[in-house]
Amino acid sequence: MKHQKKPLLLVSYVFLFVGAIICMNDILLPSLKSFFHLSYTQSTRIQQSFYLVYLVFPIPIAYLISKVGYKISLIIALSICSVGCCIFIPAYFNSSYGLVLIALFIVSIGVTVINVAANPLAAMLGTQEGAHARVNFVQVFSRIGYSLTPILGTRLIYGSDNNISFYKPYMGLGIGTFLLAVFIFFSVLPAFKPSVEKGFSFLSIVKESKKYPQLFWGAIIMFFYVGAEACTAGFFINYLQDKFIAGFSGDKAASFLTYYYVIATIVGFVSIYFFKFISAGKLVVIFGSGMVVLLLLIALTKSSWNPYYMAGLGVFISILFPTIFSLGIEKIGNFTEKGSALMSIAIVGGAVFPPLQGMIADSMGLQISYLVPCGCFLLIVFYGLFCAKLQRKVANVQNGID
């Protein structure tokens, strides 16, 4: 497997900021719940504002990429993220939850552009057989961003006087994304540009995606995966703060969220080597099954082990997003940017499942609400089985076996 290392590293830096931005939702939810005195259901508007973008923008973004190419698209994306982060400043000083939601929506537009552009770009930066490994490699940097954010973000928000200043982490992210956009502008990142520019409508893309079963079903499964991940991490701190479960302080709960992401980062990096020996579909089955088991323990048992079950989720969630994404766009040729857009539209699941979990948490308790992501990961296991079977069939054809 050959890789274009320097451009790949530059794309990895982009995902470092993406990881930090997305993880801030997990820090923002409990802090804004306290700052604005919200219920669990009301606080999930954070995820709704962030993930609803994916329902509308991926198709126009795919069209944008076909016109200006991947490099310029990344520069635009980082600039949009920077603008959105800056809006948190007036949102704080005007105590406006509505302005917070607008800021999140704008930031999410930038993140959506990155997801549509950067994942396929990473897959292109080398030989075909190394595509899964490259997508997982850049996503490891996303996990590093996740890992650094909980403790650092919590300290910036609460400070030494324990006042909630939720705009401070976004000031840093806004400056960082702007500087990275400038750096990429002057860099030698390949200016790949998709060759197909027609058929950018949702219905036409869905219709054409049926030619690629892994993509068609992968988009559906991505809807459930992102919803499950948003649920798992979004209520993580609240779960550990619940006096009937662990009763942790905010700082201690944030430290376990850090463990969760650090574990995901380490396992995600190590797992890159698994792709040499185990098919991507089989890995989705193995890691998805691990998520189901731990979430059942989290939802149905109470012991001193529960915080460790939560942190242990990082082991199994580590490779799922990049692997599902790369499986979906695997070997689809000139349909890649449209397939990437379809997979990105499915990320709107992050706006659907957290409110469902929030309603269950408000009515039945936070612990039992973790059955929502558990059910989603069970479907992901079935998708892994489907892909493993499909990959085995393709391998048999290539080897001349009936």
Characterization of this structure:
This protein is 77% helix and 0% strand. With 402 residues, the protein is mainly α. The protein has one domain: Growth Hormone, Chain: A (Up-down Bundle), CATH 1.20.1250. The protein is globular. The mean pLDDT is 87.
Give the amount of beta strand, in percent. under 5%
Q: CATH homologous superfamily, by name? A: MFS general substrate transporter like domains
Could you say which overall geometry the principal axes of the C-alpha atoms support? Answer: globular
Question: Which percent range fits the helix content?
Answer: over 70%
Structural class by helix and strand composition: mainly alpha
CATH topology, anyone?
A: Growth Hormone, Chain: A
How would a crystallographer describe the biggest sheet?
Answer: none
Arithmetic mean of pLDDT: 87
